[in-house]
Amino acid sequence: MKNSILIYQKIQESLKNGIPVALITAMNSEQNNLGRKFFINKNKEVVGDINNDSRVNDLLLEYVIKKMNQNVFSVISIVSLNYDTYKITESNKINISDNFDKNNGSVLFIEFMYPKMQLIIVGGGHVGHALAQLGDVVGFEITVVDDRKDYANLERFPMAIKILTGDIESSIDSLELNALSYVVLVSRGHKLDEAALRMSVQKNPAYIGMIGSKRRTSIVINNLVQEGVNLEKIQNIYTPIGIDLGGQSPAEIALSILSEIIIIIHKGSGKHLNSLKKIIL
Amino acid sequence: MQINTDNNFIDEILICLKKNKSAVMATVVNTRGSTPRKAGAKMLIRPDGSFTGTIGGGCGEAEVWQKAMEVFKSNQLSYVSVDLTEPVDGEDKVCGGVMDVMIEKLVP
What we know:
The complex is a heterodimer.
Chain A: H1 4-16, E1 21-26, E2 37-41, E3 46-48, H2 54-69, E4 76-82, E5 87-90, E6 105-113, E7 118-122, H3 126-138, E8 141-145, E9 160-164, H4 168-173, E10 181-185, H5 190-202, E11 207-210, H6 214-227, H7 231-235, H8 250-266, H9 273-276
Parallel strand pairs in A: 7-8, 7-10, 8-9, 10-11
Antiparallel strand pairs in A: 1-2, 1-6, 2-3, 4-5, 4-6
Chain B: H1 7-20, E1 23-32, E2 42-45, E3 51-53, H2 58-74, E4 78-83, E5 98-106
Antiparallel strand pairs in B: 1-2, 1-5, 2-3, 4-5
């Protein structure tokens, strides 16, 4: 494939700017296209094409953007594109020993690539600290929000790309949250949680979880409901937070919270794998 | 996490393309049964035979590497099916599945 530098530069640039991208590769030699590449990002910028027929490229653009907007994180997608009907059909499984060229059209391999996901930790205490450490290892971009500079600083959070120490509500307001943002409220008191939650729900992140006892979290939620915050948004908040791992230490709680987030991202069951499949002897 | 793109890997591709004027990319496109990596996993092979990234390690990677060196010469996109279903007492292929790998040459 020629022009690779241009395409990979564009991928690099888009991801650095937080824009998801898709790279399409022709898997068969229909119209002598084998290996031809077409880059699309979520802002509808394109590099290259899969076909000289602009209608085909437009169809693919539409398909990719639709996939990206579903907020389901597709890693790859294999599709067949029929040149008679201009139809895109998803084919879950392919067989490379089949002759692709029997198809009347292209078989395309579509890779979706996403920027790093953000973990926004509100509260730089024990749990927040453990969350930052674990989240960093798992691959999140870490942001810490706490109005106490003694807690929220680079010595304590060297892995953070952002540390916001101003007033909690305006700190969260200054963040750009999206479907790749996971917000965890582990602050030191329900007043702060309330402020953080009020602002977070307006910004539609992928996840909001709030730590606290039933009493503490229900005070916060009741206050927001009385303020008239959209009920559906409040019902989507994860509280009590985490998966029941049984641990108690700050690190164990952090692991439980991250487990919840990973289960949501990958649609995992949270069950023991050995309960899902019996070992064949 | 799988959905995060490893930015370092993209950097590696660009460095290799700028320096060597070519690279071969191996991408898992399809798997059946139990395999170490799933579709989308990638490995970049440089003209000197060195590589970065992993599609699962062991014998599978060796087969892919060999094909990659051919692709440097042929310039033809090709496929290799890595069969990991061989008997357990043989080599390290105990995972039990099959991976289809697409191997393509990239030029600047």
